Amino acid sequence: MYRDPDFTPFTPNERPSWRSTKRNYLENWPPAAYRDDYFTLNRVWPFVQRTHYLTDPELIEDMLITRAESFTRDFITVGALSSMINREALFFVEGADWKWQRRALAPAFRHENLLALTPTFVDCAKAQAEAWRRAPQDAPIDAMSAMSNVTLAVIEKAVLGVTGAFDRGKFVAAMQESFAGLSWVRIFTLLRLPTWLPFPGSSKINRNMRYLYDETARLLAARRASGVETQAIIDRLLAAKDPESGRSMTDAELVANLYGFLVAGHETSAVALGWSLWLLAKDQASQERVREEVRAIVSDADISGDTIEKLQFTRQVIQESMRLFPPAAAIGRQPREDMMLGTHKISKSEPVFAALWALHRHEKLWDEPNAFDPDRFTPEKAKMRHRCAYMPFGAGPRICIGMGFAMLEMTAILATLVRDFRFAPVEGHRLELAPDFTTRPKGGLPLIIEKT
Ligand code: HEM
After folding, report:
1. C-alpha–C-alpha distance, residues 441 and 449, integer Å
2. Nearest partner of 369 among 9, 34, 11, judged by Cα
3. Is 81 in the pocket of ligand 1 (CB under 6 A)?
4. What are phi and psi of 29, to 5 degrees?
């Protein structure tokens, strides 16, 4: 068990403030969020909708699994993210449209197809290792931007079936700048104001969004023009046919999904990997255990589809890092009708969130919730836990379709990098959390690296 003041990166407010809404909305979750089964942010400002937050596994199970059909995506997530992930993508569609899109994409995410991607994961990690070897060794690296680079390279190959089809650096920069506007979009959505209203920096953000969308449409056109078929996700999208209506995806659906995969498929894994490296830099004993495990299983060879699943401790590190720093801090739903959740009365106009950040640090569910301890995720201990006590990928029918992909990808990348480099914290650096689309730190995560 490793303890560090940075693992509790802010003090929860007793009463919500606008400043926190803009800077770090998690500060507005009260101290009781970490003790009770439920809390609300209760029309604290005029015109702002009441929102409900669940921190009890039973209540979350009821919403996401047992009564999944009684909910849609909530209006805040739809309003805040539909500028980032177009509304016709799998993430947003509902009902029959969602069912056929999900079914059409399922084969790409079958376990054996994911295992076959292991060499891609390893090659992308090795390219990053090579870049670090060439860089000056005494200057800190930024773990977050390095991991964005690696995971975007992975997703490019997995989604498009090719490498070098677009300028990754420009794509990531445009995406990060667009995320920076999300706190404004969230505030506008909460106030039910149109999200096209200008805010500081909005014209630059709109320019970036347009670039990202046009770039995605260009990638789709290039794939069509090439006529080359691969096993990549883009080919599943192009071949998808609704078994009931026989229809294929429209161009808008294709671009929306491609864009969704490029953005959501790499940002979340990048953030989880960045936190994992940073936590291991703090906890040198766990870092050494990862290194020993990788050496014992593959020595100096590449991790393969046959060895990746033996990296049990490496996987536990990633799971524990997503407990302390879940890439998605909350999962929202909108009830279709007025209803009761447990003893709580919910109106259909009020969004409900599974409050992952608080659930994963809840006093009733975890010993020393703010300490880092990958041994919480030994298979024996994980089995004892309620299935909704830990859920970085969600739960129920809308659980992340990329969960298996992300777990294999992150294991291969973390194992490859930790075997080849030693990571240490930068003295004097203090963590400040600045969540937007994901739980990112302000100014990245600087680390000192050294070849092993
Ligand atoms: C550490 C990595 C990741 C995390 C923590 C994560 C987390 C999540 C969460 C919390 C949801 C919402 C679940 C819900 O609403 O109940 C989600 C949905 C989704 N994720 Fe991920 N994700 C990750 C990686 C990926 C990857 C690699 C891909 C694609 C290659 C992906 C594609 C999607 C899609 C398409 C959805 C929408 C699914 C649907 O509505 O049916 N994610 N993810």
Report:
1. 19
2. 34
3. no
4. -80, 120
For residue 332, what are the β-bridge partners? 353
Ligand 1 site, residue 104, Cβ cutoff 6 A: no
Residue 15: count other Cβ atoms within 10 Å of its Cβ: 9
Mutate-to-test residue for ligand 1 from 92, 393, 409, 438, highest number of ligand atoms within 8 A of CB: 393
- C-beta 268 within 6 A of ligand 1: yes
What is the phi/psi pair of residue 210, to 5°?
-60, -45
In the chain the domains, ranked by start, together with CATH numbers, are 5-451 (1.10.630.10)
Rg (CA), the chain: 21
Residue 401, ligand 1, Cβ within 6 A: yes
Q: Would you mind telling me the total number of residues written for the chain in this entry? A: 452
Tokens at 158, concatenated: 């997995």
For residue 137, pLDDT over 90 is answered with no
Closest CA to 449 of 57, 127, 131, 79: 131
Strand partners, 41: 51
Q: What are phi and psi of 118, to 5 degrees?
A: -55, -45
Ligand 1 atom closest to Cα of residue 410: 1
Q: How far apart are CA 258 and CA 49, in angstroms?
A: 33
Which runs of E-coded beta strand occur in 298-375? 331-335, 339-341, 344-346, 352-354
Q: Give residue 324's identity as a one-letter amino acid code.
A: L
Q: Phi and psi for 346 in degrees, rounded to 5?
A: -125, 130
User: 321 CB under 6 A from ligand 1?
Assistant: no
∠ CA(321), CA(36), CA(380), 5° rounding? 45
Q: Distance between CA 226 and CA 114 in Å, rounded?
A: 25
How do residues 64-103 score in pLDDT, each as one tens digit? 999 999 999 999 888 877 766 778 889 999 999 999 899 8
Quick one: pLDDT at residue 43?
Answer: 59
Contact partners, residue 116, CB within 8 Å, separation at least 6:
231, 305
